[in-house]
Amino acid sequence: MAGSRGSEKLVSLLLIGIAAWGIGFGLISSLRVVGVVIAVGIFLFLIALVGLIGAVKHHQVLLFFYMIILLLVFIVQFSVSCACLALNQGQQGQLLEVGWNNTASARNDIQRNLNCCGFRTFNPNETCLASCFKSSRSCVPCAPIIGEYAGEVLRFVGGIGLFFSFTEILGVWLTYRYRNQKDPRANPSAFL
Questions:
Q1: Where are the transmembrane segments (predicted)?
Q2: Up-side HSE of residue 10: CA atoms within 13 Å toward CB?
Q3: Which end of the chain has fewer CB within 10 Å, C or N?
Q4: How many CB atoms lie under 10 A from the CB of residue 1?
Q5: What is the enclosing helix (H) or strand (E) of 98?
Q6: pLDDT of res. 192
Q7: pLDDT in tens, 80-126
């Protein structure tokens, strides 16, 4: 059970750190994205803390809620990981285009960081933050560049998510086993 809480703490601290790093280096300017990543990291950290307190105190109710929440997190994480691994090139392209059309701040970040303009085509009358547009006004579209990274990132995120989802189901099983053990500090004649 300690290994499961350790992996949750690691994942939560990594999420918080990556979001802070993205803002610090100017890679991400969307406060909504960073806020969600930090909130998920804090949520996972609090869940790990509940499990730790429940295990140290051998508190049945805390361990029960920890087990249920961890099971729900496993289901969501396993589903998202499988979806990341199952997306084909066409679905990735559609997903990227929807994201491109719905978020101006992410679009500006991508154009600035990848030095490209427009998604599939670019209208020179539109504004673009890429350095190629400022110097020569002729830039490559962003879709092929993003497409290269998207496949790699989705496979990486899906694999890491799948790995940690199995550590979470291990944590659920260990919590279930630990909950049903007799508290060693309790009265030896007590049943549970």
A1: 10-28, 34-56, 63-88, 156-176
A2: 11
A3: C
A4: 22
A5: helix 89-102
A6: 47
A7: 889 888 888 888 888 888 888 887 777 888 888 888 888 888 777 77
